[in-house]
User: What shape does this take?
Amino acid sequence: MTPGEKERYSRQILFPSIGEQGQEKIRNASVCIVGCGALGSFQAEALARAGIGRLRLIDRDYVDITNLQRQWLFSEADAAEETPKAIAAVNRIAQINRHVVIEPFVADLTPSNAEDLLPGSDLILDGTDNFETRYLINDTSVKSGIPWIHGAAVGSYGIVMPVVPGR
Assistant: This one.
C-alpha cells in the first residue's frame, strides 16, 4: 500500500476489524453488482469509498428524474440525458475514487450472458428488484462457487441474506 493509500484509508486501517491487512484485501477484491438502482448505487459508492479494487456493474436501465431521491450516484444531468445507469455510475465513481477499476455493462443479466458476466469476481451483490434475476444469480453463483448477497429495500425496511455456495 502506498503512503497516499495509507493516509486515505487511515480510519479504516485504525479500525481493528479491518486493519492494514483487511484494507489490502479490500484493495485486491473484485465485486460484481447486479442492478444500479437504490441499493446497487449505494453499494457501489460505499465500496468505491472503501477502496475496492474492481467493480463490475451490470444494469440495463437509464437514469430517470424519479430515481434521484433514492439513487445516490446519479444527477439531474444524468436524468436529462437519459444516461445508462452503469455509465453514470462509472462517471460518478471516477470522481470519488479514481483508483477503482470499473467495468460497466449496459445489459440485462440473462441465462445467455450470466456465465460471462458474473464469474471473475470475489463476490456478487444483488441490487435487483425481481426474482427471476435473483434465481439466475444464485444458479451462476453456485455453479461458479462465488458467494453472493441478496439484498432488498422495500418501503421503510431492508433485508439481507448472504449465500455461500456449499454452506
About this structure: The two ends are 33 Å apart (CA to CA).
